[in-house]
Amino acid sequence: MNSLERVRNVIAGKPVDHLPAQPMLMMFAAKHAGIEFIDYTKDGRLMAECQLRVAEDYGIDCLLTCSDPAREVIDIAGEGSIDWFSDQGPAINEERAALTDKSLLKTFKVPDPTGGGRMHDRIKGIEIMYEHVRGEMSIVGWIEGPLALAAELRGINNIMFDLISDAPFVDDLLDFCAEAAIAYATPQIEAGADTIGMSDAAASVIGPKLYERFLQPRQKRVLAAIKEKHHDAITRLHMCGNTDVLIPKMSELPVDIFELDFPADLENARGKLGPDKIISGNVSTVYDLLEGPPERVYESARRCHLISGKKHIVNSGCEVSPLTPPENLRALVRYSRENQP
Fold this sequence. Notes:
Layout lengths: L2 H10 L14 H6 L4 H6 L1 H15 L4 E2 L6 H7 L4 E2 L7 E2 L25 H16 L5 E6 L1 H9 L1 H10 L1 H25 L3 E5 L7 H23 L4 E6 L7 H4 L6 E4 L5 H8 L4 E4 L12 H15 L3 E2 L12 H12 L4
Helix pairs in contact: 4-6, 6-9, 7-8, 7-9, 9-10, 13-14
């Protein structure tokens, strides 16, 4: 059974040889291949090479194209708000946020993801990955969620104030960001991605009322549009931090894989999501993977599996640190290889 079949069978509740393992590897993958992460983020060919190598060497069940928060931002608004570093990804400088002047939103256009920019670079990476695996391994494309992209364009502190003080602007910005996400998903799927991951990292700090009012409807719009156009596409949602109070509304989203960070209460999530939703993640990237001995990583993976039940994918709660001992990542993957749903 190949890795893509394994993932699809777990989603469908069909038999598999063992649990899939899909840890979130970015900087770890670059370090494993001996490549500076800034080069990984700038060159889809290098990203593909790193992902293929780490997947082969560790026995991982996906190739991940998530890399940094600046792909869409740069193609929408240029590099003026971006800081570049030698061995980490590009970062948003909030003091130079692209939407410091909110009126500029009216001038923004949803970019062409195949127009030669940084969004296109990810698509090129997916094409290279697909040439190598040809449907034998899951390829996870990636889009910024509506609030994530809004925070990257406006600045995280600014958008938090806007949620309280300027609801019409937030509505317009989130609508724009949702359309950008929808536009970016299709060419990634056409290039060979079977899964689209969506990250909305700031969601866990806004609370259930603002989530229900502003963000959840836009997330639903994006995910439903992907499912409507690409019936076989797998959707995967990642929201960093403690999302316990958001789970009831999250459960209404057309999501195949809920990727839960380690601060989330897994028992609460399973109870609210119901038995049929796939839960992935929740193994601590700090206490377990970074700091713990391999035995603790293995037991943490077992805990997550026992709580999640049959609909489970072994995964870290968030991105695996590049400083993580290799034997700890191997322990995580080993749990998946030694256990069935």
